[in-house]
Amino acid sequence: MSVTTHDRTETSDGSTAARSVLVKPGMCGHNSLFVGRLGDWTWETVSDLCGTNAFDATNADGSPTYLSFYYFHIRGSRQMHVHGLTFGDRLRVASRLFDFGSESILTLHEVRPEGGPDAPVDPDRFYAYDDPRCIYVENYNRWISRSRPGSNRDLVKSSPVGFRHDHLPRLPDAYSPRRVYDHARNRLTFLDGLPADRVPRPGFTLDYPIDASRDLNGVGLLYFASYFSIIDWALLRYWRRLGRGTAAFLDRVVLDQRLCYLGNADADSVLRISVDSWQKAGDPGDEIVNLVVRDRDTGRTVAVSTLHVLSTGGAHDGA
């Protein structure tokens, strides 16, 4: 009996692509591998539906331009979350593009177990986040180019030749991510106040040297999924400060993570990461964690991320 091991993609209209996906070793685990695959699906959908190859795009001057990630939001549940996926899982991924002009684009992904209803991505349903068997992913991307050769600083907006977007639907204003990422950029957090039942923990700061053997992509930029890995690196050290063992970290459930990309970093940079957290009163395993990533030498803010994370491994604490 043959087994289908390759992804199958169909496009149902000018703004939507659907994929049947087999989860393989290179796209799952307690890491950022699945996040990287989500990013690939964004680039593939744009390439398929917007008239330009996102993997080999150039601007009017002939310079390379990249579909960079500016805002990434992943919402899951105890039942279905990114770190809970494993070898052999079969998924149905629906991806829909929305028009944000010639320099940007928004993609909404719904990731469900294969075999469920195959409905188009509807913003009202998406932003209700009411299906516990769905991972909701929101990507806001901007086209950028380097402003000077060999540097990952001072990247500039730069639309590619042939990029089509007028045929895409517009996202209702009530769901626009602009207010959310502007808040994160200005306040250095996605939090808009805290519930009364949240108790602060002491914050701390640590340094992360960029690893040129692991963190850069094929064009020498700090890879967008590496930001997730770096945040997890800091989160693991926070975990250990609380006396929790590695098993508890591996058992974690990330219900919600937002990440705003405010800059890139050169291969020899050192990032300084500030970590603050708030536990739920009476439930220390239910936490909100906020991380701000800066270039240590310049103080320039590189990224902001806020997570709602559950430690389900009480028996592993201290293991």
Keywords:
319 residues, alpha+beta, Thiol Ester Dehydrase, Chain A, 2 domains, twelve-stranded antiparallel sheet, 5 helices, globular, disordered N terminus, disordered C terminus, LnmK_N_HDF, LnmK-like_bifun_acyl/decarbox, Biosynthesis cluster domain-containing protein
Biggest sheet, in brief? Answer: 12 strands, antiparallel
CATH level 4 superfamily of the largest domain: Hotdog Thioesterase
Number of helices: 5
User: What is the third-level CATH name, the topology of the largest domain?
Assistant: Thiol Ester Dehydrase, Chain A
CATH architecture of the largest domain: Roll
Order of helices and strands: EEHEEEHEEHEHHEEEE
Shape: globular
Organism: Sphaerisporangium album
Protein name: Biosynthesis cluster domain-containing protein
Domain LnmK N-terminal: 19-190
InterPro entries: LnmK-like_bifun_acyl/decarbox, LnmK_N_HDF
Q: Can you describe what's shown?
A:
β4 and β5 form a beta hairpin. Strands 1, 2, 3, 4, 5, 6, 7, 8, 9, 10, 11 and 12 form a 12-stranded antiparallel beta sheet that branches. The N terminus and C terminus are likely disordered. The relative contact order is 0.15. The chain has 319 residues and is an alpha+beta fold. The chain folds into 2 domains: 169 residues, Roll (Thiol Ester Dehydrase, Chain A); 132 residues, Roll (Thiol Ester Dehydrase, Chain A). Helix content is 17%, strand content 34%.
Please outline what is shown here.
The protein is of the alpha+beta class and 319 residues long. The chain has 5 helices and 12 strands.
How are the SSEs placed, and which strands pair?
Elements: E1 8-11, E2 16-22, H1 33-49, E3 66-75, E4 90-99, E5 104-113, H2 123-126, E6 135-145, E7 156-157, H3 178-187, E8 198-209, H4 224-241, H5 246-250, E9 253-261, E10 270-280, E11 283-295, E12 301-310
Antiparallel strand pairs: 1-2, 2-4, 3-6, 3-9, 4-5, 5-6, 6-7, 8-10, 9-12, 10-11, 11-12
